[in-house]
Design brief:
354 residues; alpha/beta; 3 domains; seven-stranded mixed sheet; 35% helix; 19% strand; globular
Length: 354
């Protein structure tokens, strides 16, 4: 019998895969345990999640005793908004300028390299959807600052920034891609991620238990797919667009690319639109019964999220007691009554009835 995990459970499992500390693992595992369907077929999975929580707590306890819990990681930033996007690039490509142009973050923009020494988060908007951009220290000759790899693994997506005015444009791109590959991350520009695990047995139980079932194997897992958007900054400089066409040809990559300019603002709205799509999320709006339809304060759900998932983000009891919902927008008639299993689409307005 299949477990039929929801998109929200799969999102939590993705967080677990990317977790770089016991605390992050515990947070993701608790979310997985809360969201896993409670029936006979999921009993083994529920037990595995509980065992992993215990193991992660033991790891955190050992780290605390060793004093590791007291160390401050300058590149660790709590995730906010619809997703966390980490900016990756060589010195002076304009990462800080991107965050500064789209948010109220206090970034240091300078002509000299290495003006950014720690992660600087800023909240940017795609229409009414907040997306967290994190400016990080630059990569020099393919060598990351301590903590950078964990930050890259934890981020929901990576914005790889290159400089259209730089002679070493191709090298900037290739060194960043190689950095990801060398640390077992596979850059892709697709919203839906495909995980390929080493699995000699190929048993049905492991397929249903997902990453937890396959963790019991001794073999190393395949590379972690990471969503990447490439932006070529300084498109306002002389010969920039000619350089961009040459860059696209020589880069030999399937990764999505966009030319932008933080000076003129050209390309920045398109960049935010691409990031929203890359995060594989939708926005929906809660409507109070008897009140007019208003689109404000969106609730963010993974693509494939249902009415019940939306209710659960508000409160578990609302999801447990949900009778039906009325919905506006998308493929339904305005005000149409739907069940909790109805799959929502971007922009839906939902009136929950308990």
């Amino acid at each position: 019998m299949a477990i039929n995990a929801s998109p929200m459970y799969q999102k939590a499992e993705e967080r677990y895969r990317c977790a770089s500390s016991p605390a992050e693992k515990i947070d993701a595992l608790n979310e997985m345990l809360r969201l896993v369907p409670k029936h006979k077929a999921s009993e083994k999975l529920q037990q595995l999640i509980k065992e992993r929580i215990k193991k992660a707590r033991d790891e955190m306890g050992k780290a605390a005793k060793a004093g590791a819990a007291q160390q401050h990681d300058p590149l660790s930033v709590p995730r906010q908004g619809a997703g966390q996007v980490l900016l990756l690039g060589a010195p002076n490509v304009g990462k800080s300028s991107i965050v500064g142009a789209l948010s109220k973050a206090k970034v240091e923009i300078a002509e000299f390299p290495f003006s950014t020494h720690a992660a600087v988060p800023g909240m940017a908007l795609h229409e009414d959807v907040p997306i967290q951009l994190v400016d990080a220290p630059p990569v020099m000759d393919g060598h990351p600052q301590p903590g950078m790899i964990n930050a890259l693994r934890k981020a929901d997506a990576i914005l790889l920034v290159v400089d259209l005015a730089a002679i070493e444009l191709i090298d900037q791109f290739q060194q960043c891609v190689q950095l990801l590959v060398d640390h077992k991350m596979s850059p892709v520009s697709t919203a839906e991620l495909s995980y390929e695990e080493d699995d000699d047995d190929g048993g049905a139980d492991d397929d249903e238990l997902g990453v937890l079932g396959r963790e019991e194997d001794d073999g190393a897992a395949a590379a972690l797919p990471k969503r990447v958007l490439v932006v070529a900054n300084k498109a306002d400089t002389p010969d920039a667009m000619e350089n961009y066409e040459t860059f696209k040809e020589l880069a030999e990559t399937d990764l999505k690319m966009l030319p932008i300019s933080t000076t003129t603002g050209n390309g920045l709205p398109e960049m935010m639109h691409e990031l929203f799509n890359l995060l594989n999320v939708i926005r929906v709006y809660a409507k109070k019964p008897g009140k007019p339809v208003e689109k404000k304060d969106p609730i963010i759900l993974p693509v494939g999220g249902t009415v019940e998932d939306m209710a659960r983000t508000i409160h578990n009891e609302m999801a447990d007691n949900l009778k039906h919902a009325r919905i506006w927008g998308g493929t339904v008639h305005d005000g149409q009554q739907v069940t909790g299993g109805h799959v929502l689409t971007d922009g839906n307005v939902v009136e929950l009835h308990v």
